[in-house]
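Data card: per-record layout.
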Amino acid sequence: MRGSWSGLLALLWAGGCLGLSFHLPPQARKCLKEELHRDVMVTGEYEVSEAAAPGIRADLRVTDSSGHILYSKDDAKKGKFAFTTDDYEIYEICFESHGQPGNFRVPDQLVTLNIKHGVEARNYEDIAKAEKLKPLEVDLRRLEDLSESIVKDFAFMKQREEEMRDTNESTSARVFYFSIFSMLCLVGLATWQVFYLRRFFKAKKLIE
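The structure for this 208-residue chain is written out next.
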């Protein structure tokens, strides 16, 4: 029997880290959905415990909201993946179990997943070696990147707030004009009914 599980996290800061572990039953699918900004580096490290029965494997897929595969691994056991987001959208990380467990109970596989994004995903040790930075300079670089990410997030939230405000104002204006149009239609219909009934009663000589 197939099962499903999903989590949705609104990641407002460009620097962050998420570590979790869960059990993956046979023939089940469990996914993690993350909402990420554009040009955000994402790294992940995963480990799946050995299956207790032969023929059972866990596949890993990392896709965007359009279904494009960013990372794929059949019979995923242990490894890493990394990608940079192309646009602001929802990205999905899924583990899916395949294989028939037979007529006996098979223990669930334990999946450990550690995701880093933004500032946390950058390897400042490699940056320090490449640019020959001192420890203090590395800390300053990290703080600079974190400050820049916070500024970008505030700008993004301001943009979203403006878009939502414009949408609310546009919706309110449309509702207002629709109400006026409906009122005019009702007034027109009532006027037409009055004249129609007046002509009808005159034709029946019920009124002069």
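Known properties of this structure: DSSP finds two helices and nine strands in the chain. The beta strands are 4-10, 16-24, 29-36, 41-48, 57-63, 69-73, 78-84, 89-98, 109-117.

See the next section for split statistics.
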